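ok so I'm stuck.
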Amino acid sequence: MSPRRRRRLRPPSDAGEWVAAGVVALVAAVLLRALFEALAGFLAANWLIIPCLVAVAATAAAVVLRARSAARRARTARMAALRLSLTEVDALSPTGFELAVRDLMLRDGIAARHVGQRGDQAADVIGHDLNLDLVWVAQCKHTTTGARVGTRVVYEVSGTAGPIHGADLAFIATNGTFTRDAAKNAARLNIHLIDRDTLHLWATEGHSLHTLLNIRPLPLRLPTRPTGPPGSRTISSRPESQWAAPHSRLSQAPDLHGIAGEGRCEVAERDRPCRAARAPGGSASPRRRRRTTCPRCSRAGEAGRDL
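replied:
not stuck anymore, here's the structure
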């Protein structure tokens, strides 16, 4: 016997039906107003009942929240002790294997949900890792004949995990094995594989999924060079002296001229290239140096040779 189909309300089709619908809506509005006025009058006459109702509602909410918290703690403790042998895994159905993978992900602290169905676009379980803020996608392949998973499954997961499901990490779990081409292409496409041996470590031995797949939080990297404004203190992995602007050769030289605060020669300043004069190509057009010698520089050089 086929189930009865629910009848849907259709909108009015002619003027008579519109008038009837308007009359029904008007009568409903009048009745609701009368009911609201009666309730307001009753509460005004018996206002002491309002605090009692609030206290009863708060107590009921506290009881419900406490029961949910206790159930959550019990489920967490039960999940922490979850172990499945390979014999039990082999006896599962394909859907049961997907639910087992979901429970194992929940045990490892991943908020996973089962989404496997027809047309699931290569995703049987989707989970959110709250600790690492990562989205996981799991494709489950259960076998009872020891079949090997081929490259086609790897390509399907690689093509849908990120673009469609927004996953950061994807893995394929099976109680069988993988072909050599599937393992090679999975390594190239960054798809993690859980074969029968790895499944034994995960489900039976109780190893964490993060440990098996070598998933660790990324270390905080210090900036390689300061990025703040001049004068601000910026954390850097290199000493500040290595980023300091190199001093000019003249500023490091001793003041042989005997003039405090001046480290440049007048002739050298006069013979510097003219920065205002620009060539058509945009580069500076240095003017020809004058072959002049500063007397003080000559004396300084002679003094240096004497030393």
